[in-house]
Amino acid sequence: MDEMRPTSGAAAHLGLASLFPTGLQAVYAECRRLYPDQVNPLQVTAIVKYWLGGPDPLDYISMYRNVGCVAQDVQEHWHYISMGLSDLYGDNRVHEFTGPDGPSGFGFELTFRLKREAGETAPPTWPAELMQGLARYVFQSENTFCSGDHISWHSPLDNSESRIQHMLLTEDPQMQPVLTPFGQVNFLQIVGVCTEELQAAQQWNGQGILDLLRGVHVAGGPWLVTDMRRGETIFEIDPHLQQERVEKGIEADGSNLSGVSAKCVWDDLSRPPEDEDDSRSICIASQPRRLSDKDTEQIREALRKGLEINSKSVLPPIGGQRQSHDRPQQSLGHLQTQHASSRKDSLESESSAAIVPHELVRTRQLESVHLKFNQESGTLLPLCLRGRLLHGRHFTYKSINGDTAITFVSTGVEGAFATEEHPYAAHGPWLQILLTEEFVEQMLGELQDLSSREETKLPKEYSWPERKLKISVLPDSAFDSPLQ
């Protein structure tokens, strides 16, 4: 695995910078600018480098002692900085060299600020493994992070009993972007948050919640320092924040969450399952069809452009639900600024080869559909309706188990193949559902119990016979089999 090594900075300080890869030098230089008195920081170093077959994509994670800022009421903390998501070498051993004008590697490195506890003389090393887990996800999925993203982790970040079980991402308040011969590197800071804060970020937007956290000293303060011993959410500390800031923000702005990776399937109830032409074979066949390259590009382009006329740019869902620390579930939130730096959009099939040729997959209008979600995905349905569709936007569930995609669209959304005349339409495994404002209001009234934070007894069934729509919320086990 990893070992502690007081290395790196010292070599460059001794005049051996010429022996260091150029990309690595650039990141070190920014670290030395910020910490000129810590030229030889403690590091967690991958013993077997990723490009030699090792499991850890980050070659180094440097750990610095930051004294904080009295003027800004920033407490003393440990500052972790990764090296390896950007192109350190420029020789294609890890990242494809694309020149100096674009992003270097994935275009960013991760940082993390952890409150220094009284009496601590050395930084805890668990954040390094957390960062390695996120990096493994990025390398495996080839999807990038950007400021405002939120990551559902569902476990205390330090494996303790802490309430800090999820993450938001933001720009590091001190680290400045660096330009290297291999492209630009930005620094994204991990911010630990409670479940209620993650949910608020999902319902509204990550940047809004980050701003609230900055205003509460014990919740992070101006530099968003994570305190794993924090026992209260910002909404418990200041109960007015939920109603005055979050609820009003959703009402005024809607939600910037345009979709999530999910456990979901859909059935076409219009025809019997034995129909060989049934495009819902994603749900019932042992050899599920995959999206063709052309279909995949259509979905990516539609989501990238946001479908609607005056859309904010959006990013398709990425990745899958976390089964271990190597695979977080990232809700895609408002990842609006980073399309060019994503090397693979997640709606792309795991296999580039389509099982069904594009010309054999046609858009079909369906009479009746049955949607199935696990509980975590189901709880986002009110958000989808209230925060997205009532604001003239769209929302997509992308299955983590295959190419299934379910996109809800509102009336007036451009680029949709579902229409008011034919509100249910499918192109291969991609289903679009157009909901009128009247129907959205009706559904919100009946789905309100899904917004409860209490554990819900499953399965739950919702049906609108006059609309020929049925929704089921099922336990996770229902999605373990290829036959739902």
Describe this structure in words.
- With 484 residues, the chain is α+β, with helices and mostly antiparallel strands.
- The protein is built from twelve helices and 20 strands.
- Strands 1, 2, 3, 4, 5, 6, 7, 8, 9 and 12 form a ten-stranded mixed β-sheet that branches.
- The longest helix is centred in the N-terminal third of the chain and has 16 residues, at 126-141.
- Mean pLDDT is 82; it is low at 1-17, 275-289 and 303-360.
Shape: globular
* Strand percentage: 15-25%
Kindly state the number of beta strands. 20
**Quaternary organization:** single chain
Termini separation: 39 Å
Secondary structure: helix percent: 10-25%
Based on secondary structure, the structural category is alpha+beta
Question: How do the strands and helices of this protein lay out in sequence?
Answer:
Blueprint: E1 2-5, H1 9-16, H2 22-34, E2 42-46, E3 60-66, E4 77-83, E5 103-115, H3 126-141, E6 150-152, E7 166-171, E8 178-180, E9 183-193, H4 195-203, H5 206-214, H6 234-237, H7 240-253, E10 259-262, E11 264-268, H8 281-284, H9 293-304, E12 329-331, E13 363-365, E14 369-374, H10 375-378, H11 381-388, E15 394-399, E16 405-410, E17 424-427, E18 430-435, H12 437-447, E19 460-464, E20 469-474
Parallel strand pairs: 5-9, 10-15, 14-20, 16-18
Antiparallel strand pairs: 1-2, 2-3, 3-4, 4-5, 6-7, 6-12, 7-9, 8-9, 11-14, 13-17, 15-16, 17-18, 19-20
Quick summary:
By secondary structure, the chain is of the alpha+beta class. The protein has twelve helices and 20 strands. Strands 1, 2, 3, 4, 5, 6, 7, 8, 9 and 12 form a ten-stranded mixed beta sheet that branches.
